[in-house]
């Protein structure tokens, strides 16, 4: 074979080897590219899956955390509402309407206590604010510990138990079993008064809101039952009289008009002739008009007001709580229901307030709805949580943000309050539509209202604490 042929064959071999190497190299590069692309695809798919899972998880969390709205029915007297709005504006102008006390029914209670005289109501309101600051009432639930409670209740049996037929909390005292002299060996007048105020605040922040949820109507008054069986002059010592005077002043001046009705049961002839005239000296005329004294043979009339299942057996009911201490230690009521209290304390919860406004003759009315916070504090004022002046009813910006005609239901001369006041929503919308409107947005009934803050409610029955 010639040298040229050999060289040609070798050249071909070398060429083929180079081609094979190139082919191997190109193949490796393609593999690496494909492998790289595959890896990127896997990463992208994994990232997408994680993102989708994260979104689903967030949505599930959002859904799981959503608290159902609760519908609360209210019936308001249009003329009373006008007075409340005027008082609200006056207090705002004076800087005397703290957020925690800006509540329609709280303002209404003070107006009623002063016969709707605005000037006298303002004076009473500002006296209340000063007292609360000096006494520390705003933080007394957290600050005060009444360690001697169990012993005190042995010598002064009292407590809340159930609700009446309208859903109001029922407060009961067994005055005939009270022993003032023994009571003062366990505690002091000062500490007992603090306990009394603390219980008022507990009712304000827990019991009334819980009753509202349970009854699906606005509850801001209580029913009180005083059992005076066995009560005699021994119970009216100077210490007892002093304590009663202090409690009566606090109730009348700082927690006015929280009593719906009081029933004094098992009243003997001696009580009516000797003790009742003395007790009346500590009560104002408004509260006296709410009190009904029942002799033992008429005690059954309580069943017309309170269902048998809600009334302790010693008052003629069928309830026999099995807890130690019996019915008065059971704390029976909506405020003892974990599901209801979860709604009361849940700051994200909302309730739909269905308001019907009526005139004094009950002939003219206008329905409306509002979406409001549901955490035990039922506010009527819509103030942004951020504290924005736009939504602050007391700020100049807030005062010019909306106008509402207030007296349409009673066909009187229209009056416009330049404030969001107690109308965070358009009250002219029928409740059946379940749609909330405002100047800036439109919300359906199942959407949260962003401009809602939290406020307080009223306290428990007037002049309940009597020893």
CATH 2nd-level architecture of the largest domain: 3-Layer(aba) Sandwich
CATH fold category name of the largest domain: Phosphatidylinositol Transfer Protein Sec14p
**General form:** globular
Residue ranges: pLDDT <50 for 5 or more in a row?
A: 4-10, 54-67, 374-467
Radius of gyration: 35 Å
**Tally of separate domains:** 2
> What's the CATH class label of the largest domain?
Alpha Beta
The number of distinct β-strands equals 10
Q: In order across it, which strands form the biggest sheet?
A: 2-3-4-5-6
**How does the helix and strand content classify structurally?**
alpha/beta
**Strand proportion:** 5-15%
Mean pLDDT: 73
Query: Helix share of residues?
Result: 40-55%
User: Oligomeric form of this entry?
Assistant: single chain
CATH superfamily name of the largest domain? CRAL-TRIO lipid binding domain
> What is the N-to-C succession of helices and strands?
HEHHHHHEEHHEHEHHEHEEHEE
Main sheet characteristics: 5 strands, mixed
What is the terminal-to-terminal distance?
136 Å
By DSSP (H or I, 4+ residues per run), the number of helices equals 13
Region (Disordered): 380-408, 439-467
Main location: membrane
Keywords: Golgi apparatus, Protein transport, Transport
Pfam families: CRAL_TRIO, CRAL_TRIO_N
